[in-house]
Amino acid sequence: MNAPTSYRRSGLILVASALLLASCSAGDSGGKQGGRKGNAGPPQVGYVVVQPTSVPMTTELAGRVTAYQASEVRPQVAGIVQRRFFTEGAIVRQGQTLYQIDPSLYQASVAQAQANLQNAQANLEAARIKAERYKPLAAMQAVSQQDYTDALAASRQAAAQVAQYRAAMQTAQINLRFTKVPAPISGRIGRSLVTEGALVTTNQTDPLTTIQRLDPIYVDIQQSSADMLALRKALTQNGIAPASAAVRLKLEDGSDYDLAGTVEFAEVMVNANTGTVTLRARFPNPQGVLLPGMFARAIFAQAIDTQAYLVPQAGVSRDPKGNATVYVVGAGNKAVARTVVADRTIGQNWVITQGLAPGDKVIVQGTANLKPDIDIKPVPADTPQKIEPPKKGQGQGGAQTKGGSQAKAG
Q: Which of helix, strand or coil describes residue 357?
């Protein structure tokens, strides 16, 4: 009697356990089905409507700062430097005396030239009077015609000699003036390469000093001939227009130069050694921040693309090969993948030059799980998502969340 009873009890326990497991499975299945039911419907995405706009084609190139004007001060006469009249590193003005060379020999040359001129003028006066006296006598045949001709020629020779000595005196005066070495331009003067008591000559190799004008100042920018050729070809296409030549500078320490410059000209020849063309830009430099020889990065727009599109960076993805792709809202509210050309950025936007059309709705929000041709619910970007309360009957056994998943009650 005991053994059959034990078997019956074990059978009842197994049946009860199976019913309990079936009940739990049914409950879990119901919860999962309820969750899928809550997730029904396409995902919501945010889009922006794009239209063509004018976008500058910005270029960043290396450049070197060059003085606006530079002059090497050299002596034009030989002699001993007696005095220096400037402070090294100061600003000098054009015509300001920089050095005094010993003028003694040149003063003597001026005096000698003046004496020779006076002597020639005296000879001229005597020859002129003699010729004037011979003229009526020759007419009366009181003197021979040859004597009058000789007197007239002597008068003219004396006049030529006066002109010769006058030119010699002017040369002597110029050389005397050159003993005071002037500043050929206005600007900041460098260190003096000669001292008082040094002998200088007209043909010496080294200058006395150097003057540079630093305000305004030039920046010589190097652009490859290939890039310039591509730019000129682009300017022949529709939608590409030349831009103003405003230039910004990024200095060696990474900071931005406050004042903008303008491109003055581009050279008409390519450097055979570097394959580059030099563009020269002029910048104001009132504080003397830019110094000759400094390197800088020049940022400027050489053209304007009037048919480009600006798309937020969140809406552009790239494959392993670097190809850019965007999703647009297609017919029937389906996600359509488009391959686009996005070579550069401006601020927070990609500049897209190919692959889009006016009025396209580019998806920029909710792109994480997008796949081509899936159903979507498009709304304008930045539209707040609605979180609906649980529907009737979904509150039993757990709270209905936005994603449709259900938290089971213990």
A: coil
